[in-house]
Amino acid sequence: MGDLAGKVAIVTGGGTGIGKGIALAFAREGATLVIASRNAARLQDAADEISAIGVDVAAVPTDVTNEAEVKALFETTMSRFGRLDILVNNAGLVDGGRVDELTLEEFQNVMNVNVTGPFLCTREAFLIMKDAGGGRIINIGSIASNRARQSSTPYTTSKHALWGLTQCTALDGREFGISCGQLNPGNTAVERRLESGGRSASGVDMGPEPLVETADMARAAVYMATLPPDVNTLEMSVIPVQQLYIGRG
Length: 249
Hints:
This protein has helices at 17-28, 40-51, 67-81, 104-132, 153-173, 191-195, 214-225, and strands at 8-12, 32-37, 57-61, 86-89, 135-140, 178-185, 235-238. With 249 residues, the protein is α/β, with parallel strands linked by helices. Helix 5 links the parallel strand 5 and strand 6.
């Protein structure tokens, strides 16, 4: 029995990358999983891997920017499993560009996925957790929420906004036993990073950069999720030792 046995967790963006890594790590700790993503095929592949660990898992194709689909995700979770203990807001969109070169559509697309999506999911989780007497919400941010990378306006702005949402959720949740914290990954070996040879997709190309494995990022999320209910990790940054970060240098 793992430290998350008996718990039900939703992980958005759970079909690939950090989200899939977190879902697999939670499953190894005994959690029941609901994973969500827009890509149904990749989502089902991830669900098959999780199921092989021996835990229950539901794959629910979801666009987190669509309010009706988000509501359906949480309704499905409750109808199938009857509870929700953990929400991981991981679904995200990476895009960059200098501020004078961006279209409104490019900027809004990133804000919709990275900010509106977590808000919609947090609101639904909050309603459930409030009535249940508590729960935990983990937002997957970025070190961009604290340190900007040149030509990363949409992404960096969205992650700063997510940090604001994290703090507000933590404050609003206090009286209901709901905690909220943010995990800020540095460069991580997700699929798109590996396909590009470690290059960034959200700022000036600095060439191949050092990467953290998704499994290491997932270990940090497990730590946050398995703390006692009266303890919260408000913010955690996990980066490669050699990554340019403080002052981006």
